[in-house]
Design brief:
The protein is α/β, with parallel strands linked by helices. It has a domain of about 260 residues: Alpha/Beta hydrolase fold, catalytic domain (Rossmann fold). The protein is about 40% helix and about 15% strand. A hairpin with a 2-residue loop joins strand 3 and strand 4. Helix 7 runs antiparallel to helix 8 and helix 7 packs parallel to helix 9. The longest helix has 19 residues.
Length: about 625
């Protein structure tokens, strides 16, 4: 052992100096001085301390095979106590077998079980042998939940959390697919270094909420980029991100779950009386899949234990595989063919009865991906997670705003009919809609009564008197005559150009708008209306269908009319207004929208956030949305 060898070397160098030192006068002074210095060095204490940076000392005390690749102090202690330091370095499997023999002989202490877990994991990582990953999980479980007749470790034991992580990582790696890219959960007999692990698993657990879980990814192996925060709810079990697809392919998108949805699940390997089983050559275990959306803790040995949840990594993984980023500019320029009608309104996870929908509506040349940080924060607030479910609305942002708002209202109405055809879930009647920028204008159009105001901007004649086909009349009625959606009870406007955007009025914006392809159904309606009702046209340039840029240009008929219509009675509205810089808010803007445009009277609250226009990820914006949602829970 290095310490012992060092100490013996010091002792043997000291003794010759003391026994055979000649008289001082027999040697020259310089040589005598050298001998004195050597004597002082040889006589220094073999055990001592050196003051060091506390961080360095702390790293040494808390280091383990998972965090640094080095064995923890407790495991190194066990190796020394069992005289296995050199043996483990030379032949790890032989050393592990010797330490296991102590366990089988009934002489094991809790520290020996922990050491077996950590040593097995290190050897598994060094060799890639699956059997040792599984052995690590088995030993770690035996340390954490020893079973009847044994005491569980104290919560203050530093090894407790390390053992949880060894177990979680051991389960994920022990059931890894052949190429290591996924986790393959299944029943069967699995080799252990000392025998067999018999695993029971009901494959029906891979079906949840009428969807099949596929492609289970160990999120502990994922680095997250683009998120300001990463939330991990520590507990027991291997956290996984699972893709989902309808069990019946014929059902397609009927449950409204976004096709690239990823859900967080946790794999748990249960072992009854593990301290008794690990002394045998056959360990029996049951594998289960836990869903954090349904429960966040499980019963182990009669005690509640939280399951490990990695929600941020799952959300980031979902967003990374989402096509929404490619839709941002394409969705602005193309009126059709970019945003699939089936995925216009989508849920992040299957519908949950009793949870209030929060619908997020993005802005111009943007996408639902821009809500990622806000979703991450809100979903990791237990108060929010237990009472709300999040839906995303995606649309082609170059289209006329009235047309996009019509699609939003109808998508919400159809969604409620689909998920709750009997109208039995009162939570669905308390919907909250949150819109950023142009999305805020769409949001407002879910809670207003327009009467014939938009129509009068277009026509001098009453709607019933113009010459239109029934199909054209139907689409104009749905677009021009806006009624409040009765299930929307609260709205939040974020950086919304209530009176238009000065940027939308710029030459650059109008130049870009020239490349927008508008929806053909609206183009045909607009053209036919002008050709067949020339005397009814309200203004000269009516022949050209306006884009969203036109609609948001200050002074435009549409934006002036929308700004003049109040939010319907009984609906709570809130404004979050971005202002860049430190000057007076009333004279400021966010680079796109003036404060004076975003400010409206009659709202429940208004918060000014010092930020540029894209303020959805600003912590003050998120905190205000959190506050509003919690306030909403207290209202009827």
């Amino acid at each position: 052992m290095p310490v012992a060898v060092q100490r013996r070397a010091v002792v043997y160098r000291i003794r010759p100096c003391l026994s055979h030192s000649p008289a001082a006068g027999a040697r020259p002074p310089a040589l005598l001085l050298g001998c004195c210095l050597l004597l002082l060095a040889a006589c220094s204490t073999p055990v001592g301390v050196t003051r060091a940076d506390p961080r360095t000392v702390h790293r040494g005390l808390t280091s383990n095979v998972l965090s640094s690749g080095r064995l923890s102090g407790p495991t190194q202690n066990v190796l020394f106590e069992q005289d296995l330091v050199e043996s483990f370095g030379a032949d790890p499997e032989k050393a592990l077998a010797r330490l296991r023999a102590v366990v089988v002989a009934g002489e094991a202490r809790r520290s020996d079980i922990f050491a077996l877990a950590e040593l097995s994991f290190q050897h598994a990582e060094d060799t890639g042998k699956r059997a040792y990953f599984l052995a690590s999980a088995v030993y770690a479980y035996a340390f954490l939940f020893p079973g009847s007749g044994h005491h569980a470790p104290d919560a203050f034991d530093s090894r407790f959390r390390v053992a949880c992580d060894l177990y979680n990582r051991g389960v994920a790696a022990g059931f890894a697919s052949e190429d290591g890219s996924e986790v393959d959960l299944h029943a069967g007999d699995f080799p252990l270094p000392f025998g067999t692990l018999q695993v029971d698993f009901d494959a029906a657990q891979l079906q949840k909420d009428n969807r099949q879980l596929t492609h289970l990814i160990p999120v502990a192996e994922l680095e997250v980029h683009g998120m300001e925060t990463r939330y991990r709810w520590p507990g027991i079990g291997a956290p996984l991100a699972a893709s989902t697809e309808p069990i019946d392919p014929a059902l397609g998108f009927q449950d409204l779950v976004i096709p690239w949805s990823k859900v967080a699940v946790t794999a748990l390997l249960r072992i009854d009386n593990p301290r008794q089983q690990i002394v045998t050559d056959r360990v029996h275990a049951t594998l289960t899949i836990e869903s954090p959306s349904q429960r966040e803790q499980v019963d182990v040995d009669g005690q509640p234990a939280p399951i490990e949840i990695e929600s941020t990594a799952t959300l980031a993984y979902m967003m990374a595989e989402s096509p929404v980023w490619q839709q941002e500019i394409a969705g602005f320029l193309k009126g059709v063919g970019v945003i699939d009608e089936k995925t216009r309104l989508a849920m992040l996870a299957p519908y949950r009865p009793g949870k209030i929908p929060v619908v997020l509506v993005h802005g111009t040349a943007s996408s639902s991906g821009r809500w990622a940080q806000m979703l991450n924060e809100l979903f990791n607030d237990r108060r929010i997670r237990e009472h709300y479910q999040f839906w995303l609305f995606t649309y082609n942002t170059g289209n006329p705003i009235g047309y996009s708002a019509m699609l939003l209202r109808e998508s919400l109405t159809n969604a409620l009919r689909r998920v709750d055809p009997g109208g039995t879930d009162p939570a669905l009647q308390r919907m909250v809609v949150i819109g950023h920028s142009q999305g805020g204008l769409l949001t407002k159009m879910t809670v207003i009564e327009s009467s014939d105001r938009f129509w009068n901007d277009m026509s001098k004649k009453p709607f019933e008197q113009v010459d239109l086909s029934e199909q054209e009349r139907d689409i104009l009625r749905r677009t021009m005559f806006v009624h409040p959606s009765p299930f929307v009870r609260r709205v939040v406007f974020i950086a919304t150009p209530q009176r238009g955007s000065y940027f939308a009025g710029s030459r650059l914006a109008h130049w870009a708008a020239r490349f927008i392809t508008l929806p053909m159904d609206m183009v045909h309606v607009s053209t036919d209306f002008v050709l067949r009702n020339k005397q009814a046209v309200a203004f000269a340039d009516m022949g050209e269908l306006p884009t969203a840029v036109d609609n948001m240009t200050p002074g435009n008929r549409f934006i002036k009319t929308l700004a003049s219509i109040p939010v319907a009675p009984g609906v709570a509205a809130h404004s979050i207004i971005a202002v860049d810089g430190d000057g007076p808010a009333e004279a400021g803007n966010d680079g796109i929208v003036e404060y004076q445009s975003a400010h409206i009277d009659g709202v429940e609250s208004e918060l000014v956030v010092r930020s540029g226009h894209s303020c959805q990820a600003n912590p003050h914006t998120i905190e205000e949305v959190r506050r509003i949602l919690l306030e909403h829970l207290e209202t009827n």
